[in-house]
Amino acid sequence: MGRLQRTILAVVALSFTAPSVLAGPYSMSQSNVGSDFFNNFQWEDIDDPTNGRVQYLSKNTAMSENLTYATDTSFVMRADSTTILNSAGPGRKSNRIKSNAQYNTHVAVFDIRHMPQGCATWPAVWEADDTVGTSEGEIDILEGVNDIAPNSVTLHTTGNCTVPSNRTQLGTSLSNDCSSSADIGNGNNGCSVDAPYTSSYGPVFNSNGGGYYAVERTAEFIRVWFWANNQDGIPSDITDGASSIDTDNWGTPIAYFPDTSCDIGKVFGNNNIIIDLTFCGNWAGDAFSRSSCGSNCTQYVDENPSSFSEAYWDFAALRVYSPSGSTSASAISELLAEERTTSSALMRSLGYVERIFTSPTLIALAVLGSAWGLA
C-alpha cells in the first residue's frame, strides 16, 4: 500500500472520531531553507490583480536575471533596481510565488532576515487560494506600503464574518468586519489589526536583522505572532526550527481572530502560502501621495531604479507544521503533488476516496483493508 493510500485511510478513520482539530502540539510537515523554495513553490508570472506597476517573472527568467537565488542558508527574491522603465512598457520586474501545497489547520513560521523596503513598495506574505479571490478566505500575515509601519494583519472573507472588538491580543483592532461586502472604500479592507511595534515592518524591521512571523489557523481561531530578531524571549522552538512546537507556550499574539461570530471553518478553505512584491497599485499607489514619497507613484517607479536596491526578500527559513497525531489536508495536498507523475496514479487515488464516501463506512473500510492487505 502506497503512502497516499495509507494517508487517505488515516484521514477517513480520523473523520469519524475527530470532527475538528483543536490547538495544541504540532509536528513539522515541511521545511523550506535555501533551494527548497525552488522545489516547493511555483512562480506566478501573471498580471498583477492589484493593478501594480510590476512585471512578475517566471522562475527561469527570475533566476537568469539574478532576481531570485539561493544559498545553503538563504533564499532571496528581489526587484530590478537598474532599469529605467518606458512609461508605455511593462512594469518593474519582481517575483510572486505560491506554495505547491495547500493548507487548512496548520502553523507556518517565517524566519525573515530582510523584507522589501522603499517608497512605492507593497510587499506581502499571505495565505489564500488566489484562483478564487477571497471565496476561500485570505490571511494577510505581513503587509504594508511605502515603508509605513507598523505591519497590519488582516482577514478577508466573502461570507459573513465578524470578530469582537475586545479580544486577547497585543495589537490594535482597526476594523472588525472581515467580509469584503461590508467594507467601505475599495471594498476589500477586511478586519485588520495593527502590530504594536514599528519593528514589525519596513526599515526598522530590517535594521533589527529581521524577525519571525508565525500564523496558526484552526477551525476555532486564527492567531499571528511577531518577534524581532534582536528581542529577548523568542520561544526556543521558533529559533531552533524544532521538529515539534506548542503554540500555547508562545504568549499573547499580536493578532487574534476567534470564531465567536465567524465560522472560520466554513469561510476559510484550503489556502496556498503566497509571497510577493508589487509597486503602486490599488493600495500603495493610492497612499503614495499621502506619504513623504512624492506625488506620482508610477513615475517614481519608472524613473528611479536605484531606489529599489533594498526592495528584496531574504528568508532564512519557512517551516510548516501540522497537528501532531493527525493527517491534515495539506499533507494530502503534498502527497498528491508527489504522486502526480502519472494521471492513472491520481485517478486510482481518487477512486479510493469515491469508494469511501459512496459506500457504508464499515463496508468501505473493510473492502479497503482487504484490498490493501490490512485484513
Secondary-structure map with pairings?
Layout: H1 3-15, E1 25-32, H2 36-40, E2 41-43, E3 54-56, H3 59-64, E4 68-70, E5 75-78, E6 92-94, E7 96-99, E8 106-114, E9 121-128, E10 138-143, E11 152-156, E12 161-162, E13 172-173, E14 191-194, H4 202-207, E15 211-217, E16 221-228, H5 236-239, E17 244-246, E18 255-258, E19 261-262, H6 264-267, E20 272-279, H7 281-288, H8 297-303, E21 312-323, H9 329-338, H10 343-358, H11 361-371
Parallel strand pairs: 3-6
Antiparallel strand pairs: 1-17, 1-21, 2-7, 4-5, 5-21, 7-20, 8-15, 8-21, 9-10, 9-20, 10-11, 11-14, 12-19, 13-14, 15-16, 16-18
Helix pairs in contact: 1-9, 1-10, 10-11
What are the key terms here?
single chain; 375 residues; alpha+beta; Jelly Rolls; 2 domains; eight-stranded antiparallel beta sheet; globular; hydrolase activity, hydrolyzing O-glycosyl compounds
What does this protein structure show overall?
With 375 residues, the protein is α+β, with helices and mostly antiparallel strands. The chain has two domains: 1-23 and 328-375, no CATH class; 25-323, Jelly Rolls, CATH 2.60.120. It contains eleven helices and 21 strands. The protein has helices at residues 3-15, 36-40, 59-64, 202-207, 236-239, 264-267, 281-288, 297-303, 329-338, 343-358, 361-371; strands at 25-32, 41-43, 54-56, 68-70, 75-78, 92-94, 96-99, 106-114, 121-128, 138-143, 152-156, 161-162, 172-173, 191-194, 211-217, 221-228, 244-246, 255-258, 261-262, 272-279, 312-323. Strands 1, 4, 5, 8, 15, 16, 17, 18 and 21 form a nine-stranded antiparallel β-sheet that branches. Strands 2-7-20-9-10-11-14-13 form an eight-stranded antiparallel β-sheet. Strands 3-6 form a two-stranded parallel sheet. A hairpin with a 3-residue loop joins strand 15 (211-217) and strand 16. Helix 10 (343-358) runs antiparallel to helix 11. The longest helix is centred in the last third of the chain and has 16 residues, at 343-358. It is globular, with a radius of gyration of 21 Å. Mean pLDDT is 85; it is low at 7-21, 182-187 and 338-369.
